[in-house]
């Protein structure tokens, strides 16, 4: 039986947050890629195999999380990738409902919450 490695795309304009999340998830056995804004994330998704999960910040320059979600839904190849919002916004619940994402995590990140949401939505434990 081979080990299944779930992959996660971390999209956040804050380099410290990207690096911290990446390091935590890699320590847990996930394959991690990073992008600093929605446009970079879409370019990554066009050029690489789709990840199991996208962790997405809402407030970013160039292309924010809302625009990214709208474009993601328009592309059948990536539309079904689960998205978990990572945000400091007090409007997270309303924003997530409007964007039809799977869940949200508040910044500053609680490690146990991050790992729980990633495990839940990345389908790492499921067989294909």
Automatic annotation (TrEMBL):
Entry-linked PROSITE patterns: RESPONSE_REGULATORY (PS50110)
UniProt keyword Oxidoreductase, yes or no: no
Modified residues (4-aspartylphosphate): 57
Superkingdom of the source species: Bacteria
Domain Response regulatory: 7-122
Keywords: Phosphoprotein
Database matches in SUPFAM superfamilies: CheY-like
Presence of the UniProt keyword Acetylation in the record: no
Pfam short name (any one): Response_reg
Protein name, as recorded: Response regulator
